[in-house]
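Proteins fold. Shown next:

***
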Amino acid sequence: MRGWTTRDIPDLRGRRAIVTGANSGLGYHTALQLARRGAAVVLACRSAERGRTALDRIRTAAPGADVELGSLDLADLASVRAFAARYGEEPLDLLVNNAGVMAIPHRTTADGFEMQFGTNHLGHFALTGLLLPALRSAPSPRVVTLTSAFAWSGRIDFDDLQSERRYRKWAAYAQSKLANLVFAKELDRRIAEVTSVAAHPGYAATNLQQTGPRMQGSRLLEKIVGIGNAVVAQSAAAGALPSLYAATAPDVHGGACYGPRLLQYRGAPTEVVTPPQANRAGQAERLWDVSETLTGVAYAAAAS
């Protein structure tokens, strides 16, 4: 049986989408395919230079595509608010919370949060909440939040969410990706008008894996990771398929997670099993309350 591919994406003309981190990797390929099928796509990027390059590439690959570049730094809540004010006035059919950082040396966001938790989870939590009125005004809105297989090893440490006592880069990354998954499920439970799902790419070759070693100044580790990407990983285009499936397939249902078919590692997208800690009693409610407090974005207020 043929697996799901970009050929199965339905006609998206008349639909409006925002993809965070669309300048490269999974985000770029997600935005490209949405634009090819007729969606009006906003590339939400931190780097204006890389964003313009991606914009030009999409316009070349998909002549006539309705794409524009928006400035968004998820590690700065002022930037998140400015972006939402700029792009939240019209109905929004699709939000793909794709951008992220992985296993980087200890850094903090503009608001003082640990960078991985602050960018991967809190930035997207705030963005989604601020765009909630735009989503609710669309006929069948969908939010796709990117998680990772690392969520299986994740634990949300409410006593040290910002890794102030001890910072371990991979543990912090796993926590942020588990938080993404918990958020996607809880958003679907709380906001009936919005279909919220999670997706993950398996092992896909993007620049995400090499950023951490590069920031550490480890050329050897950067080279090793690059070899692994070239030899073992599937392409970024293939890794974007679960996101695209979650964003466009008609049989997608809220609260689910979509990833590669083969051991959640590679292959055609399908619904996948999620780690048991993603459904821990009371965890989603606690994470939601903490996230509203830290970001200052209250979903009840945003919805009104």
Remarks:
- DSSP finds twelve helices and eight strands in the chain.
- The chain has one domain: 10-203+237-295.
- The mean pLDDT is 91.
